[in-house]
């Protein structure tokens, strides 16, 4: 959902738009409640006059009935209350009120005074295109799977996909550090396989390693992946927390493109009246947390996102956010080569089409299946 | 929702019960889909015979119509597929299917071969009672607030609460590292204030520091809190990721009781047909992630959890999970002293009653308000 209007807030406040499932009158009361719940969490009548009441308590900046029973309110908060912590920004924006049904976070309006604390996508669309040497067309991605294959088998897949010209060859997000294909061995072999294919084709495909892991392990695995020559990182922020992804994206020792995967994020977007909008979650918050490419289930696949929700994600991936670069929407989830024409029209060039299992359906020669997909893409770009 | 029946799985498989909003026939098909989606994520017809198909793909173990259109299925997964990572356990249990509405995670059945990788609550109910010297009654907790007060003012509050005999005096979860009360200063002063009160009363109250923070900061703050003499940690796993809480709970350098706060977790439980059950999220998963006390909004307060949902949480906090200790349900969210009799009957002795703003309503003498609350509690235990 694009911004209805931009507020003229001073640089020391930021704003959040919420959709309330309320009458106008009830929405007014609920908006007041949000102002207290998300900040001081203290009975209004007991709050002393002064700075806390005047500045730290949230402030209702706008209130508009969208349709009967649906009201959009915009609440502003003091920048000091969130400091430089992404965890605390998410807390103020939607911490406690996530527990109150009928409130949906629609979008963020963040001033540069707050945005400057975030690097955002390190590469962004332009940077990733440069890295891959791919201009004037959507990018192609695929996934190494299924879990249970050996590192050797996964590397062979990676080699074939790169030989066939797929830009981004990523681990399935279910590949972590299992005995069948331990992390280090898998990542070294797959990175090497893609390098080997690149040497043969002159291409610039990258292998993207899944570094979703507990605590410090994620950082250690990212450093290992970097050392092994991986060309990017896959992170599931629903599993690691958003800030873990941000930290990996901002670490200059790593300096690799980051793809976000939507695992364990679904409940945020399954209700139209609660949770977080697709625009804010898969667009704005993912960019704050450093994603260069945002994977999500495309409409018409195995999942249930609608065309309109996918459009909102694509918009959120490029909506103005100060110095934060735009990210690539990366529709996935049961896509097949047959969907390429339709996706090309819908998303245009600035997207990554992620086709996993679908690339296996045309027979065992994965390089040839990949070449066909590339040809199809170039035909419809 | 308590386990309907215990399955006799071999030690190398664990099970998950899901509630599907489907007819029996559709549920059967959906259960098959879950078996693939959560593991190999690969077209069934392309999967080679052998170990992957026979062992790694999920397996439907039970299917039962609860009422028309509501079916419970139990799916088992191979322990090897999750290894020792909590992130990967959550991924297999509910990663991709969180994106498919109409599937609700109801409960986990984990064998000791998997549970042995988790420490769980370090103190548990008995350990926390020993730590606090409190037996034969529910425990009392309160929160330092509002954000915006100085460290000095917050410490004065902490002193008064401890003087009045409140067992656990925790930071409001909105207190992080803001300029009004920087983390280190606040924690040192509040911990000292509670020690001072304990010396005067002979009591054993603890100050619990909020260490919810980005990445490594959470660990650094926890170590600082330990050094400053805090008696526990408050963590919002919705903001940090569950594994960050687990790591803080399992770190022997810290070895402090952990309270979990529900901020940014609401969307998991706002729909009765999607997301995660209260039992699994606030009971089982919180214990896997090391919480000794689980804060959640009690029925009848500012939030919307029902009596039955609160009962499910209390059950999840003590349901058998191998060697994992039971945690304290910690109902909160707009509770007042008047609710004590009702809560005492509902929860019995094994709960922590968290009363925040409500303790300020009886006038500015917080020590006296606290003493009255303690008296009330002892009267109704």
UniProtKB/TrEMBL annotation, chains A, B:
GO BP: any one term: carbon fixation
Pfam families for this protein: RuBisCO_large
InterPro entries associated with the record: RuBisCO (IPR033966), RuBisCO_lsu_C (IPR000685), RuBisCO_lsu_C_sf (IPR036376), RuBisCO_lsu_N_sf (IPR036422)
Stretches assigned to the Ribulose bisphosphate carboxylase large subunit C-terminal domain: 128-360
SUPFAM superfamilies named among the record's database cross-references: RuBisCo, C-terminal domain (SSF51649), RuBisCO, large subunit, small (N-terminal) domain (SSF54966)
Domain of life: Bacteria
GO molecular function annotation: magnesium ion binding; ribulose-bisphosphate carboxylase activity
Name the record gives this protein: Ribulose-bisphosphate carboxylase
Species of origin: Caldinitratiruptor microaerophilus
């Amino acid at each position: 959902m694009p911004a209805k209007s931009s507020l003229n807030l001073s640089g020391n406040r930021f704003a959040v738009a919420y959709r309330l499932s309320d009458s106008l009158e009830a929405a007014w009361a609920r908006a007041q409640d949000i102002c207290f719940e998300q900040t001081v969490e203290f009975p209004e009548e007991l709050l002393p006059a002064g700075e806390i009441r005047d500045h730290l308590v949230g402030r209702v900046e706008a209130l508009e009935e969208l349709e009967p029973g649906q009201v959009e309110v915009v609440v502003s908060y003091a920048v000091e209350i969130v400091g430089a912590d992404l965890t605390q920004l998410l807390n103020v924006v939607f911490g406690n009120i996530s527990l109150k049904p009928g409130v949906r976070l629609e979008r963020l309006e963040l001033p540069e005074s707050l945005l400057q604390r975030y690097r955002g996508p390190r590469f962004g669309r332009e940077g990733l295109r440069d890295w891959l040497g791919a201009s004037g067309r959507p990018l192609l991605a695929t996934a190494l799977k299924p879990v249970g294959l050996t590192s050797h088998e996964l590397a062979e897949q990676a080699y074939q996909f790169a030989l066939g010209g797929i830009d981004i060859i990523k681990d399935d997000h279910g590949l972590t550090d299992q005995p069948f294909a331990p992390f280090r061995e898998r990542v070294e072999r797959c990175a090497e396989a893609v390098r080997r294919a690149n040497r043969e084709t002159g291409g610039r495909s990258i292998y993207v390693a899944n570094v979703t892991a507990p605590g410090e392990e994620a950082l250690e695995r990212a450093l290992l992946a970097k050392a092994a020559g991986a060309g990017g990182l896959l992170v599931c922020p629903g599993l690691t927390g958003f800030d873990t992804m941000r930290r990996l994206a901002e670490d200059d020792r790593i300096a690799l493109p980051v793809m976000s995967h939507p695992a364990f994020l679904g409940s945020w977007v399954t209700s139209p009246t609660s949770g977080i909008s697709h625009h804010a979650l898969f667009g704005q918050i993912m960019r704050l947390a450093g994603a260069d490419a945002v994977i999500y289930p495309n409409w018409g696949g195995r999942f249930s996102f609608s065309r309109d929700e996918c459009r909102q994600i694509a918009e959120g991936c490029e909506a103005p956010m100060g110095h934060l670069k735009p990210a690539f929407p990366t529709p996935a989830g049961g896509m097949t080569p047959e969907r390429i024409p339709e996706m090309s029209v819908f998303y245009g060039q600035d997207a990554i089409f992620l086709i996993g299992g679908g690339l296996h359906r045309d027979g065992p020669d994965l390089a040839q299946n990949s070449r066909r997909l590339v040809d199809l893409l170039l035909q419809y770009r």
